[in-house]
Amino acid sequence: MDVVKAAQLSGRTLERVVVHPLVLLSIVDHYNRVARDTRKRVVGVLLGTSSRGSVDVTNSYAGKGPRLYPQLGLAAALASPMPFEEDDKDPRIWFLDHNYHVSMFSMFKRINAKEHVVGWYSTGPKLRENDLDVHALFNNYVPNPVLVIIDVQPKELGIPTKAYYAVEEVKENATQKSQKVFVHVPSEIAAHEVEEIGVEHLLRDVKDTTISTLATEVGGKLAALKGLDARLREIRSYLDLVIEGKLPLNHEILYHLQDVFNLLPNLNVNELIKAFAVKTNDMMLVIYLSSLIRSVIALHNLINNKMLNKEHEKAEDSKPTAIPTAAGS
């Protein structure tokens, strides 16, 4: 397997990881085929490109660990996909068939020579003890691989991806040996125009037609507010742990938090308070007028319906009644 030049990744700190929809669909399909309704996770290889501190994950394929069944032959062994083997009791015991990855990558390279190995994925849903060991294996194929954890059964709002890369951590007092640790890197979901069309076509079948566009927009805003609330609670929890001394002080995180606070508007300015009040009153006036118009239209339809019923009753009364003739006359 070709190794990417070190200048592409190792010489620059990773700033973000972009995951495409095709990768998410492939990983979910991999999980449903192999580890559905179990506590196991699945592992595979991520393909894509990297430039200027950004990793673009455009494709993936599942790993495969061999299981031998002598009585059934080699065909049965190949037909039983075991992406990743690990001991539930001892996390130090695990197996990943990297020879299989080498052959798979050579076939993928014939289709798209621009894609190379950028890392690996796991359905976690969290980091595990042996992830650093697995990560070290992928250093043979790319200088600075990324690990993307996909939560196939998310219980919280937000994107289901978390990306990490490994760095060498050196203690300040130099009394302890340096060790590899995972560092979180921002991840996002993005797609090319062709991918967007395909995703929209897939979502067309699962969309609830009984929900209006307004309800969809309101639901989206509500989901965004819930996600914001979850992030604020996470920030508060982190700051509480720092104050209590349970976590070390990280000046970079505090610097980013200060940037967020600097972007907040000053609500103590009279002009801003007045502008908010005027804007709110204008919106409430439109809602009030809409309610009045809706009520007037409902009354108008009710009156028209009542008048129409009266006209039908008059028409029925004005019809001449037929006199029955006596039998035998």
What does this molecule look like?
The strands form two sheets. An eight-stranded mixed β-sheet has the order 9-8-7-6-2-3-1-10. The protein has a two-stranded antiparallel sheet with strand order 4-5. The longest helix is centred in the last third of the chain and has 49 residues, at 270-318. The chain has 329 residues and is of the alpha/beta class. The protein contains nine helices and ten strands. Strand 6, helix 5 and strand 7 (146-150) form a beta-alpha-beta unit. It folds into three domains: 6-207, Cytidine Deaminase, domain 2, CATH 3.40.140.10; 208-264; 266-304. Keywords: Proteasome. This is MPN domain-containing protein. GO terms for molecular function: metallopeptidase activity.
Give a short summary of the structure:
The protein is 46% helix and 17% strand. It is built from nine helices and ten strands.
Layout: helices, strands, pairs:
Elements: H1 6-9, E1 16-19, H2 21-34, E2 43-51, E3 54-62, H3 74-79, E4 85-86, E5 94-95, H4 98-111, E6 116-122, H5 131-138, E7 146-150, E8 161-169, E9 179-185, E10 187-189, H6 193-203, H7 213-243, H8 251-263, H9 270-318
Parallel strand pairs: 1-3, 1-10, 6-7
Antiparallel strand pairs: 2-3, 2-6, 4-5, 7-8, 8-9
GO cellular component, one term: proteasome regulatory particle
Domain MPN: 17-173
Family: Belongs to the peptidase M67A family.
